[in-house]
Amino acid sequence: ALDCSGQPDAAAQRLREALARTPKSHHARSTLGMVYAKQGKLEEALEELNRAIELNRGFDMSWVYRGNVLFLLGRRDEAVSDFKQAMALNPENPAAHKGLAAAMAGR
Prior knowledge:
About 75% of the residues lie in helices and about 0% in strands.
């Protein structure tokens, strides 16, 4: 909620605190990755999203978030692969479809 209210630094701090208590929370790691990405901290975002996927390969949004980060890092083929994985997990995920279309178009 803090990220959505324009307080990404506070959101990141709260998420890090939550992860100190529950380090295996794939959802908190995925959300922290998204917050880092919005802050332009793409390498940090990628690290958190990799950890989130290691913890739960079945959470489609981690694949979408990582696909977005990979795309921003210029790693288009890897981004396409992540968006396809997200769609395999949840064919109805509009973010996966949108990300895949953007990555395939190269924009």
